[in-house]
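Suppose a colleague, Dr. K., hands you the sequence of a protein chain of 209 amino acids and asks what its three-dimensional shape might be. Before reaching for any lab equipment, you can write down a predicted structure in token form. Begin with the sequence itself:
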Amino acid sequence: MLNDRSLWLIARNVLRPSNYYALANMRHVYERPLLAAGRYFFGYGEYPCVVQVRTPMGTQSVTLFNSQDAITLHEIFCREDYRCFPTPQVVVDLGSNIGISALYFLTRSASTYCELFEPDPRNVSSLLTNLNGFSNRFTLHEVAVADRQGILPFKREPTGRYGSIDLETQCSPDSSNGRNGRNTNTCSKTLHGIEFLFESITLIRFWMA
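The predicted structure, expressed as tokens, is then:
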């Protein structure tokens, strides 16, 4: 019921104006808004599935792999959590997941370029599927970004939507308890390298787990 949302989360969001903006926006974004609403609100449907969304660069196909992906799609394309003006030209996306946020930025303008960082290997093939057709406008780095460099414990949950570096846990790279070693780059090294290539960074998006 309600796509695994807690009552506390529902109560916190019921009066949030942006959620009503997203609700009204669904009919403009989705080619099949009623089906999308069922997936978003109640977790209905089978996965994986392909959803058609309308963008400034035409209709795009997005593959969703679980009901949590339906929430992510709605928050980014309907609620427009990452809307900004002017349109960013160089985006650094830390925690790119299955590529939905990158697809949003790439479809705002034909000149936008994305540097993507996604450490969870389960998400990488999904990301490449969703960004098919944009391969010349993004670079994918299969590493995490932190305040230190090396192999650090990485905590993740089953859907792949959330993940974070877990400095309190010791684990080996072949750990099967949801925590695996991941290569990390330092934040300063990452940003300085991108600035060297593009001279400036317009937007940095990151997810705090």
